[in-house]
Description:
Strand order of the largest sheet: 2-3-1-4
CATH topology of the largest domain: Bacterial polysaccharide co-polymerase-like
Strand content: 5-15%
Number of helices: 12
Order of helices and strands: HHHEHHHEEHHHHHEH
CATH class of the largest domain: Alpha Beta
Shape: rod-shaped
CATH architecture of the largest domain: 2-Layer Sandwich
Largest sheet: 4 strands, antiparallel
Amino acid sequence: MIPVEAATTDELSLRDIYLVLKRRARLILGLTLGLALLTLLWSLLWPKTYASKVVVSLSLANQTNPQGMLNNLPSLSGLAQGFVDLQSTTLLAKDLAASNPTQYYQAKFDDKRGLLNLSARGSTPLEAKERAERILGVARDYLGGRMVEGVRSNIQAALAQTQLDLEAAQESLKRIRAELKTAPDAGQANPTTAAALEARQVDPQAARANSPAYTSLSLDESRFRSQVAQLEARLDTLNRLLNQPEAINQLVGQVLQVQILVPPAEPLRPSFPRPVLFTVVAGVLGLLIGVLWAFIAEALRPQEAAEDASAAAKPAERAAIK
């Protein structure tokens, strides 16, 4: 059996811990204060960086859709995420006046709440604010520009379709006018014929006329003339709208709602470095390292002492043998 005293020699009591910490107090205190002071000095000497943040709410207002010009427009999430992805490209470098936009600018989109979070960094509070205003303007121009492109595409598609409809209506009107020249414009009304025509869903006015064919063609001519006039008016409206960018921008401005929840402002404190926080963290880290090193040194101390005693005993043994 192992004696109780031998079994308990390796146990560490609170007194042992206290004695270890007391013997290594200078080491622990030195590491703690040294690391904290070095971090504080570094934080004070390092160039300060200020950050200005902007929060923008994006939404689409419920507006009337004149002539289908607001159909198939890009989604807000797609537009905002596209702007976020462009940060790492050179497309925005010129607008943001930075060769590497991600070094000074940052953009994130919260799809659930529809919020576009923008931030800009600078060496001074004023520079950070100016850069925040710049990225806000670039973001608004990008979002509005993509919406304007969508509206212009819809207008061009409506122009092409209206032109086709106008050509078809003009062709039908031309054909009906040619038939009117050969159709008899006089005759005698026949009740039996009128009833048969009405049964085939012919206009009652044309069916009961003296010359149903002529009357029907006249009504068709009137209808196609009205249709041609409407298509020509619509074509003229679309052409004028396509040539008026201000009107398109106004329409997009009514649909795309960009609300600035947090405007650009000059920050009061730098975002990096933060001397107080960094110094506290460095002090705690130095304390942990000091305590750990104290126990490691204490664990190595008995082995070193035993080796020294063994080395000192060897010459004495040799002398006794002689």
